[in-house]
Amino acid sequence: MTEVVATNQTIVVVGGGISGMTAALEAAECGKQVILLEKNPALGGRVSQMYKYFPKMCHPTCGMEINLRRIKANSNIRVMTMAEVTNVSGDTGDYTLNVTVQPRYVNENCTACGACRDAVETEFDNEFNYGLNKRKGAYLTSNMAYPQRYVIDPRMIGTADADKAKAACKYDAVDLDMQAEDLEIKAGSIVWATGWRPFDAAKIQPYGYDRIANVITSVELERMMDPMGPTGGKILRPSDGKEAKDIAFIQCAGSRDRNYLKHCSRICCMASLKQTTYLREKYGDDGKATVYYIDIRAIDRFEDFYQKVQADDNVSFIKSKVASVTEDKATGNPVLNGNNLEQSGMGKDMRYANPHELVVLAVGMEPSVDFNALNVGLSVNEEGFIERDPGNGGMFAAGCAADALDVNRAVQSATASSLRAIQVVNQVAGAEG
Amino acid sequence: MSNTAMVEKYRSNFLKEVAENVEEGEWVRMCMQCGVCSGSCPMGPHWEHPPQELFMMIRANKREEVLSSSSMWMCTSCYNCIARCPRELPITHIMHGLAHYAKRLGLAPKENPTNKFSQRFWDNLTKTGRVNELKLGLSLYFMNGFVEGIKTALKMKDVGMGMLKTGRMNPLEILGGHGVKDKSGFQAMLKKAQELEAARVDK
């Protein structure tokens, strides 16, 4: 994969999540040459780690699948995984990207048979499942992984275990001598679709994510719900492995808070509303969800989703930003402490100390890349997202690199940035006649 | 400015009155009523109106109820609310600001222990420029009557003896005690500060 044929009429899309895939596809389906760079071993990004995504409650195996099929069918897209941009030079219509491609240690011969995985014994935290379980040192990131090709963890190199993986492969696909490669790629326009990461919940000290076993994050709950996930689709308490049926959701965990993230992450209210439906799906009338909120921001047409959840007797809403979470040592139940604002000034005791079996922190979104540190001349706002600015030249942000967005809006944003990138390369083509 | 003058000046805009007259009072506008301060307050169950509720009452023009409330006098300055407030409101300072403002207008609850103690502390300190701990302690013991005072004194006698032995308390202080070198200069300074404050308030 050394020779990358790119010209200044090529569009490079950085990041292979739902936004990057969309941006790449829109441009490629308009006949443009696109290189799609992804840092991880497989495409799909955060959306592939969801159980379902709102509002239509799509499984990624459906919604993402379509995009993967489009990519496979399109000869204008060149996908490069394990590739990270280290520098960008040049200007609109004439960029040069420095890209480092990490070794996968598995070549194109791989049939994803899994013999190398079975042969090795070393295990590491499974990043795809936010560390909720372990994976082998030779692995496929997920069943949906594209490309369907195994990876050998670089920490395995030089161990006897890595040799076992090589010996087990019948197709001569394991190549332990693979080296990192530094490439230079030409591009007329760049689309940054580097996405988001969940805010580090441990920083919110009063909520005890780092101390209380049964306090988890919303993204971890998504993994638990996945039938192929770490718990086989069951919502299990980390403390004792029992199924949790009484679950509290704490909204604005990190968002709208000047101590953490200043911005409203926009998706977390809908994410929690969505997750309350998981409880009904799993337990019927036996599940109980309680949402602690400042105000529910089910933006524009999602209001009907909110109303549907409100009508569910198993879901209750408490207007209150939770002050702290403590632990009932005997039961392992987290106890939520705070003030119920709807009882404020009514002469009632508005204090509560409510135990729940499990607490889910609706964590906020922050940009996954520090664009200031990357220093490629992008205008970055206070929250770290890429700002729309003529000074960005032929570089555009798509999806969560631009703002905290849900899937629907990320895809819209990606399509828009794709069109802008197309305009840039069209101008280049026009100038060169 | 007197209480009636303030009522006259601000009519029914208590929020504006707080913003312009209470220390850090302009921050009240920034409160988004999330309730994290009230939930975090260790004194929470013991006061009638926790901070978030006081802020709402200010906006709702409940001037009388807020200024005559004993709630803000309960603040112990633990700073839990400031640490957790998502909008970085200096809640502790606002509580003290409200108490101070109520006191200035003569609306603070007279029988509130914090109010009483603060007045005693101030009177004690301003006499000589140094706190006379013996006199301050005794005046607190006897705040609620002679019998109560004797009882408290007996209860605290071990602490008192300990302080005497280690030289932390001088029994001769009862005769007047020590003070700053330039007592009249100190008094003049206070007077000037009060003049400046009064000029600022009347503006």
Quick overview of this protein structure:
Chain A is α/β, with parallel strands linked by helices. Chain A is 24% helix and 24% strand. Chain A contains 9 helices and 22 strands.
Describe what you observe in this structure.
The complex is a heterodimer of chains A (433) and B (203). Chain A has 433 residues and is an alpha/beta fold. Chain A folds into 3 domains: 11-102 and 180-195 and 368-432, FAD/NAD(P)-binding domain; 115-168, no CATH class; 198-365, FAD/NAD(P)-binding domain (3-Layer(bba) Sandwich), CATH 3.50.50.60. In chain A, 24% of the residues lie in helices and 24% in strands. Chain A contains 9 helices and 22 strands. The mean pLDDT of chain A is 95. By secondary structure, chain B is mainly α. Chain B has 2 domains: 3-104, Orthogonal Bundle (Fumarate Reductase Iron-sulfur Protein, Chain B, domain 2), CATH 1.10.1060.10; 113-202, no CATH class. The longest helix of chain B is centred in the C-terminal third of the chain and has 20 residues, at 183-202.
Q: Percentage of helical residues of chain A?
A: 10-25%
In CATH, the topology of the largest domain in chain B is named Fumarate Reductase Iron-sulfur Protein, Chain B, domain 2
Terminal CA distance of chain B reads: 9 Å
Look at the helices and sheets of chain A and give the structural class.
alpha/beta
Total tally of structural domains of chain A: 3
Say which CATH homologous superfamily of the largest domain in chain A is assigned: FAD/NAD(P)-binding domain
CATH architecture of the largest domain in chain B: Orthogonal Bundle
Poorly predicted regions of chain A are none
The CATH class of the largest domain in chain B turns out to be: Mainly Alpha
Under CATH, the topology of the largest domain in chain A can be stated as: FAD/NAD(P)-binding domain
In this structure, how is the largest beta sheet of chain A organized? Answer: 5 strands, parallel
Radius of gyration of chain A: 23 Å
Distance separating the two termini of chain A: 31 Å
Helical segment count of chain B: 12
Largest interface: A-B, 23 and 21 residues
Name the shape of chain A in a single word: globular
How many domains of chain B, as an integer? Answer: 2
Arrangement of strands in the largest sheet of chain A: 3-2-1-11-22
The dominant shape of chain B is: globular
Strand share of the residues of chain B?
under 5%
The number of distinct β-strands of chain B equals: 0
